[in-house]
Amino acid sequence: MTTEIADVLIVGAGPVGLTAAVVLTRLGHEVVIVDSQAEGANTSRAAVVHSRTLELLEPYGVTRPLVDRGLHTPDFTIRDRDQVLIAVPFDGLPTAYPYTLMISQADTEEFILQRLTALGVPVRRPVEVTTVVQDTDLVTATLSGGEQIRARYLIGADGMHSTVREQAGIGFTGGSYAESFSLADVRASGGVPKDEVILYFSPAGLVVVAPLPDDMYRIVATVDEAPHEPDVAFVQRLLDERGPKAQPAVVEEVVWGSRFRVHHRIADRFRDGRILLAGDAAHVHSPAGGQGMNLGIEDAVTAATTLSRVLRGESPQLLDEHAAKRRRNTESVVAIAGRLTSLATLPAAVRPIRNIAMRLAGRTALVRNKLAWRLSGLDRR
To answer: Using one digit for the tens of pLDDT, what is the confidence trace for 172-227?
Structure first.
């Protein structure tokens, strides 16, 4: 049995784990990062990078390639068919990135991985962590092959079914949405704007239509039972039932599609001794508002910078403060995503009342600005 020593072991090499590895390496710490999946096995779910995320990644050399690749969309609107309920403008925000950046998660992940590779840190794949134990000085992870990695701290970024969280005995409180979610990247024409992310409300469920690079669109919708691989006819039916009416959207090709169920769960605590949780290992929630990956990358940057201070001799109490603050922020984000999902799927009988209330609220600059700050993440600066 071989044993390796590191400052920090990161379990999970999605955008969250990769970000933590980049930040810690740039700050001068020895990092080992492992992932249970073979290269290229990850699916592309997240497609939104918000302003605050771009700000956080800027010091680490990741933001520029993201900004150059992605689509800059200055507006987010909530609609009921052709009726605008609330328009949320990002172009007036006090940031260098006053827009929602639309980019495939596969691209986001690749740019962060390229930065980590340039820093000389390889991702070890496929490597499965089977047990995690800790003592007063170190945390020890045993791998499926019997090898061990010992580190001063461990970041669990290994997704919703986190082995790290389970091994630490941390509960994952919450529930599941009754509906499943269908996701598709499509080529389309007609009523599909290039400069706007649209959340359509409908009695049949919500549908999000968002532009992507390469003349594609990301479609996300709640359905009772999503097909494993949505085809053109299925996506077209979703948009016909829920999307624009005056100028209907026409789906020409489904480039990629998938389905998933969404839970709303938050880890009971984000720290257990020498173990920190980040990303989906710590929280999962509705995709409404496009917050999931952004919140996870925030977890990664703040966990890594706080760990760096502790590794350099500051009080470990900083980690408790970090964990408590991240959990508070997560509760706030999960609440707004849940409210958007609930509003989107209200019964038809109360839909006119909801629309009137939202249109009235949307006329108020204060409401629009507050939504822009919250969705962009700038309220968590």
So the answer is: 998 877 678 899 999 999 989 888 999 998 777 789 999 999 999 999 998 888 88
Report how far Cα 264 is from the mean position of its chain's Cα atoms.
13
Please give the share of the chain, as a percent, with pLDDT higher than 70. Answer: 97
Q: Give this prediction's pTM.
A: 0.92
| pLDDT band at 30; cut points 50, 70, 90 | very high
Structure tokens given for 211: 């532009």
What DSSP state is assigned to residue 285? Answer: -
User: What residues does 80 pair with on adjacent strands?
Assistant: 83
Element (H, E) at 375: helix 365-376
Nearest to 108 by CA among 41, 46, 36, 186: 46
